[in-house]
């Protein structure tokens, strides 16, 4: 897809409660902060929204900053805040990605290509070998996502699985390591070692 056909929402406002006090989005993997790597993964998006507190390290100047209300209201509320920040006419497709997936750049083009091949699908999500859907690294039809969020309101603390259950999604199966996220210091160490080894 061309930049004009998709916008991006990067979710960067979580508590990082399992990271032992480390600000996860500012953690460095492969010479870049996790937030910087996430924004790099969608560098060709038409517009980019970073949902989280202002001034996060790694957010490009062009990024629109948004915040879910109240803060820490969960990823569904953050997605809603990101869509609101895009205004009334977002691109046809919006890529949603959590800032803690360091290899997202390897997945985003595959998501967009798969969605282009399935014009009737509401979105495309990766599925790991254990059956877990990585719904926070996905490409969605913007209009359908907005409809689902409106129908599911209020969004505070709403589980992501509640909204994706309302959508017709195509699944792809990339390598598990490519879609692995970082929840703990051990995950961060593992990802850093993988990047170091290339």
Question: Helix/strand/pairing class, anyone?
Answer: alpha/beta
Helix share bin: 25-40%
> What are the secondary-structure elements, in order, as H or E?
EEEHEEHEHEEHHEHH
What does the average pLDDT come to? 88
Q: How many distinct beta strands?
A: 9
Shape: globular
Largest sheet report? 7 strands, mixed
Radius of gyration: 15 Å
Strand content: 15-25%
**Poorly predicted ranges (pLDDT <50, ≥5 residues)?**
none
Description:
By secondary structure, this protein is α/β, with parallel strands linked by helices. Helices cover 32% and strands 18% of the residues. It contains seven helices and nine strands. The strands form two sheets. Strands 5-4-1-6-8-7-9 form a seven-stranded mixed sheet, with helices on both faces. Strands 2-3 form a two-stranded antiparallel sheet. Strand 2 and strand 3 (32-33) form a beta hairpin. It is globular and about 45 Å long.
List keywords for this structure.
alpha/beta, two-stranded antiparallel sheet, 198 residues, 9 strands, 7 helices
What's the arrangement of secondary structure elements?
Layout lengths: L5 E6 L16 E2 L2 E2 H8 L6 E4 L12 E3 L8 H12 L6 E6 L9 H10 L5 E4 L10 E5 H11 L7 H5 L4 E4 L3 H4 L5 H13 L1
Summarize the structure.
The chain is an alpha/beta fold and 198 residues long. The chain has helices at residues 34-41, 75-86, 108-117, 142-152, 160-164, 176-179, 185-197, and strands at 6-11, 28-29, 32-33, 48-51, 64-66, 93-98, 123-126, 137-141, 169-172.
């Amino acid at each position: 897809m061309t930049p004009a056909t998709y916008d991006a929402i990067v979710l960067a406002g979580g508590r990082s409660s399992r990271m032992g006090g480390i600000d996860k989005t500012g953690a460095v993997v492969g010479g870049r902060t996790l937030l910087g790597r996430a924004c790099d993964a969608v560098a060709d998006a038409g517009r980019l929204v970073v949902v989280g507190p202002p001034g996060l390290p790694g957010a490009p100047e062009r990024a629109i900053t948004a915040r879910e209300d109240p803060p820490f209201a969960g990823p569904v509320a953050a997605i809603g805040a990101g869509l609101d920040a895009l205004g009334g006419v977002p691109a046809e497709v919006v890529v949603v990605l959590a800032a803690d997936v360091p290899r997202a750049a390897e997945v985003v083009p595959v998501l967009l290509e798969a969605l282009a091949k399935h014009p009737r699908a509401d979105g495309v999500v990766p599925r790991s070998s254990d059956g877990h859907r990585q719904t926070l690294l996905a490409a969605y039809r913007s209009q359908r996502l907005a409809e689902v969020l409106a129908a599911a309101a209020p969004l505070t603390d709403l589980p992501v699985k509640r909204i994706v259950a309302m959508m017709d999604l195509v699944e792809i199966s990339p390598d598990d390591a490519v879609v692995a996220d970082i929840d703990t210091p051990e995950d961060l160490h593992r990802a850093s070692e993988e990047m170091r080894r290339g």
